[in-house]
Amino acid sequence: MLSKIKDDLKGKVSGVTEYIGDLKEEGKEKSISYINGLSEILPIVAKTGYKLKGVDIEMSLPPGINLQFEKFENITKEEIDAIMEANKDKDLLQTIVKTLVMADEFHNKLKMGDLVFTTISVNLSIPPKVSLNFAKN
Question: What is the residue extent of each domain of the chain?
Answer without folding.
Answer: 2-136
